[in-house]
Amino acid sequence: MFRLALWLGSVAFLFGQAPDNVLLVVNQASPVSLQIGDYYASKRHIPPTNVCRLNAKADEEISRDDFDKQIAAPIAAILRSRHWEDKILYIVTTSGVPLRIRGSGGPLAEAASVDSELTLLYSDIRSKPHGIPAGIPNPFFGKTSQAFRHPDFPIYLVTRLTGYDFADVKGIIDRALEARNRGKFVIDLKGSDKTPGNTWLREAARALPQDRVVLDESARVLSGEQDVIGYVSWGSNDPDRKQRHLGFKWLPGAIMTEYVSTNARTFTRPPETWNLGSWDHPSGFFFASPQTLTADYIHDGATGASGHVYEPFLAYCPRPNILLPAYYQGRNLAESYYLSIPALSWMNIVVGDPLCSLGKP
Fold first, then answer.
1. What is the pTM for the complete model shown?
2. What pLDDT was estimated at residue 110?
3. Residue ranges of the domains in the chain?
């Protein structure tokens, strides 16, 4: 009976992990968006009817009004007209679909990521549009024992296929299809930091098989690790982190997250000579920040990543103590990240194929 219960639980977690439950969003104003859409649809066998073709500005940052008219409204119209509100579980945006929504009356007043706003489209359609300013509790946060399905959880899980170029995104898609449950979870604390961030990192390490964990609590920054399937750290908020690239060998299916405010500020490739810097020296900023870039991890071989388009505050960063155990236990990429993200209509994005899974350990 116990084994049957475990089997039924695993079936529940796999509920909805099918191409038919994905709505793929491409921007016809962006050649790379169309290229990514074609490649992903062919590799994941996404039905042609599950592709939403927008005509939106291809800028990374747009206004709230443009988001509503050019992105949210067309997607909602497709879902309503086809009666797909419950069938679609995952929305996948692509490079060339705007990334972030500009705030008015200050950078955070109405600012959010496009993807985080789209998570609430389900409840917007079913009831009434959510309020602004941003920061709405995620109903799926921490629900690790429950399957993600509608109407139990009135949100969509939104991920993005993006990188510096098409080659980076092709790598995400190809590696997702090769993912297996092997390799090391690398967890790098920031010295003696006393904030909850280090506590969550330690809890993540305790929740995983000890023979698959590399945990460093010293001031040094881990680099050159081999066979990495998961990585969590403070990124450039660790004062000892001086280099953009860590020199890891990432396994197919590998994911990462870090406590960094602006790592998804852009997916424009920086000059090769650019490196991490200090807030005290604006001359060294790239896109108004000296901090690490989510796109670097994808470029270097990660399959999934999270980031923030504006300041998220530590409390709203993905919780590694939820993310890594969920992914290790066989949850797909989208579910693992959104289980760990406390708030929606906020600054977070998730990069990767939502259906990517390591499978059960």
1. 0.94
2. 84
3. 2-160, 178-306+315-330
